[in-house]
Structures are given as C-alpha cells and as structure tokens.
Amino acid sequence: MRGENAPFSERSHPKDFSQHSQNSQTGGLDTKPGGLRERCIQGLIDRNLPGYAIGGLAGGEDKTSFWTVVALCAERYCSGKIPFLSSELGFHIVYILQGLLRIKSADFASDGGPLDATCACFVCTEYSRAYLHHVMKKDGSIGPQLITYHNVAYMLHLMAQVRQAILNDSFPSFVRAFMAEWHQGTPVPAWVHDALNYVGIPLNQAE
C-alpha cells in the first residue's frame, strides 16, 4: 500500500505508470550534446515506452529551431518506437489545400465559397467562408467548433495521403507536389528547404 507521503498523483491514481503508452519529451530548444533535450530523450528511452511525444514546442519559436529539435528527437528514439509531435490544432487559422486562411480577416466577410473546395467535411459542404467569418467574429463556441472540426478533417485526410504515399514508395514526390500547391508560386521559405534537404527530399530535384 502506498504511504501518505507518496506523490499526490500516485495516491489519487494507484496504477502502474509503466502502462502509459506515450510520454512527452521536453527540454526547450537546448539541442547541444548533453543538453536538456538529450537528457530528457535518454530518460524516456530508459523507460522503454511504446511511443514518445515530442513536446515543449509552442509554435512561436523560430522555424529553424523548431525543425532542428524535431529532427534530433526523431533520430534519437529507438527503432520501432513511435515519435509524434505534440501540438494543437487551433481555430484561429484554417488549413486548406492551398495554405492557411485567417478567417477573421475582412477579406472573407462576403465570400460565399466553402473553406476548402477540395474538402468533403460537413463544414465545407454546409457553411460559407462569410458565415464562418461572421460566427468567428462573434462571441460564442460555434465558430471555433466548426473550424476545429474542419482542421481535424483536413489533417486526417492529409495523413491518409502521407500513409498511402509511403506505401507506394512515392513520398518524396508527394512532398514536392504538396509544397508546390501549398505555396502557390510564392517562394518556399529557406527553413523548409533546409529541413527537407536534411531528410533527403530536396524540392528542386527533378522527378
């Protein structure tokens, strides 16, 4: 029996914590050898969990630091383990095939089109950009709920495409096509080139 001096979480939930399937890895942007990230990674590896969450990234850090941390964590975890990036799908930005929409912008106040004409989710088939702009500008929960629903649907569809591209051994081609569509003729940021070059997918390589 656990004593009264046991941590509150253990006294409240007397279970075997080794059963947890995931555990979040932090350490900020410290990627130097022996730094906080590496120490935390090693601590989680020692626990031999089925998978690991790459946490501690809020999205506000510079993009080079962001992808460098993700690369370090993904490389260090044991083969066969499942690393995933712990993040949130916010509702202030809408994900569509051609990039991002800031739906609160006045540009969408009279836009009768769907959020994403290529998306089959019920939000895109039932509501216009103008309506979603209106409800997002007002206080209430319906706007964020609808945007979040679409964003989750978008990500699920994207991951299904990624999975199929991997199975078809065509992932580099998929990435290049995705980036071309996402940026729509605008220059791809240098940090994107750097990150993809790091994993062996140069965007300027001919198919």
Automatic annotation (TrEMBL):
The keyword Zinc applies. Residues 1-35 are annotated as: Disordered. GO terms for molecular function: tRNA-guanosine(34) queuine transglycosylase activity. InterPro entries: TGT-like_sf, tRNA_ribo_trans-like. Residues 27-77, 94-183 form the tRNA-guanine(15) transglycosylase-like domain. Pfam families: TGT. Keywords: Zinc. GO terms for biological process: tRNA modification. One of its GO terms (cellular component) is cytosol. It comes from the Eukaryota. Residues 19-28 have a biased composition (Polar residues). The keyword Zinc applies. This is tRNA-guanine(15) transglycosylase-like domain-containing protein. It comes from Aphanomyces astaci.
